[in-house]
Design brief:
3-stranded antiparallel β-sheet, Nucleoside Triphosphate Pyrophosphohydrolase, 2 domains, 4-stranded mixed β-sheet, Endonuclease III, domain 1, binds iron/sulfur cluster, alpha+beta, single chain, 351 residues
């Protein structure tokens, strides 16, 4: 346990805080460990290729965090360079500098400063919002009462030991004041908690009306060349999952037959006419706001040379080298299915 005001290494704390923005600790931990081996310090990260960074973020989701983290590492190198040194104690110690970096909001900046330097900055992540809403008995959905909750978090912060206080608050939210079944009997704050006093812990915070999950069908094509290489393309920079690789294809239109979706998409994306052959795999993949149903078929080119008409670039890649490219999580199932298919067909492609 660090002593009060003791400084801890900033870099690993910053990486962990960004990974934890949308993801639980148990999921983050193995990714953080591999990340720290691959990019042990700020200079390693700032000088890495974007593709390497994406490869180590692959599977963690919300890929814009990886792009912003990488950009922030370059900005931080510049800030430390201007101070002519990369010592830990020359990292920024003010919240405004941290909040000016890509991907760093107020809570992330405050968490970094309180964890690394024991600086008194209040936090307000989802868990803390829930605890504070219950403490004051606020019967509103979480996002509607942030100003009051920020004031409360600032007012409660222990300025003598902000690191321990913020950590304790997060632990309370993760283990005792949980979303579905708060353990009020063992909560140290139960005598001050209005929701507990009024028997409202089950309804506070009020839930937001649930969104209808958008459902989309995606048709993808697996195209091989004569050398046994498979065609992949890299997503454009202005799209979600920018810079990641994928198999060519796209959204099925209403009343469209899936094979027609695939041939149309490959013509639009690559400028090639294809014959759509047998199916490799079909599966559902869920994101927080949408459900995708993937249908993947082998295809063979009838005419044209593939070009990157709707991607940063295209590549022909040996199937066993696909692992070297960062793919969105859903594509992992396609790669596994392809590997199995190639094993079973003993390297003979039957399209
Ligand atoms: S008493 Fe219950 S609802 Fe109130 S803060 Fe503690 S765990 Fe949460």
């Amino acid at each position: 346990m660090p002593k009060n005001k003791e400084c801890l290494p900033v870099y690993p704390i910053w990486i962990a805080e960004v990974m934890l923005q949308q993801t639980q600790l148990k999921v983050v931990l193995p990714y953080w460990e591999k990340w720290m081996e691959a990019f042990p310090d700020l200079v390693d990260l700032s000088s890495a290729l974007n593709q390497e960074v994406l490869l180590f973020w692959q599977g963690l989701g919300y890929y814009s965090r990886a792009h912003r983290l990488h950009k922030a590492s370059k900005d931080l190198v510049q800030i430390l360079w201007n101070k002519n040194c990369c010592d830990n104690d020359l990292w920024p110690m003010d919240i405004d500098t941290w909040m000016s970096l890509p991907g760093i909001g107020r809570t992330t900046a405050a968490s970094i400063l309180s964890s690394a330097f024991d600086i008194p900055e209040a936090i307000l992540d989802g868990n803390v919002k829930r605890i504070l809403s219950r403490l004051v008995g606020k019967q509103e959905p979480l996002s509607n009462n942030s100003k009051q909750l920020w004031e409360l978090s600032i007012g409660l912060l222990d300025h003598n030991q902000p690191r321990n206080f913020n950590q304790a608050l997060m632990d309370l939210g993760a283990t005792i004041c949980t979303k579905n079944s708060p353990k009020c009997d063992i909560c140290p704050w139960k005598s001050f908690c209005l929701a507990y006093d009024q028997g409202n812990t089950g309804i506070i915070p009020l839930s937001k009306p649930s969104k209808v999950l958008k459902k989309l069908v995606i048709g993808l094509g697996i195209v091989f060349n004569d050398s046994g290489e498979v065609l992949i393309d890299q997503r454009l920079n202005n799209t979600s999952m920018a810079g990641m690789w994928e198999f060519p294809g796209g959204k099925k239109e209403e009343d469209e037959v899936i094979k027609n979706t695939i041939s149309r998409e490959l013509l639009e994306e690559l400028g090639v006419e294809v014959k759509v052959g047998k199916k490799l795999i079909e599966f559902d993949h869920f994101y927080t706001h949408k459900k995708l149903h993937f249908v993947v078929h082998f295809c063979s080119i009838i005419s044209g040379m593939p070009k990157a008409l709707a991607s940063i670039q295209i590549k022909w890649v040996k199937p066993d080298e696909l692992i070297n490219y960062p793919f969105p999580a859903a594509n992992k199932r396609i790669i596994d299915a392809l590997e199995n298919y190639l094993l079973l067909s003993k390297d003979k492609l039957i399209l």
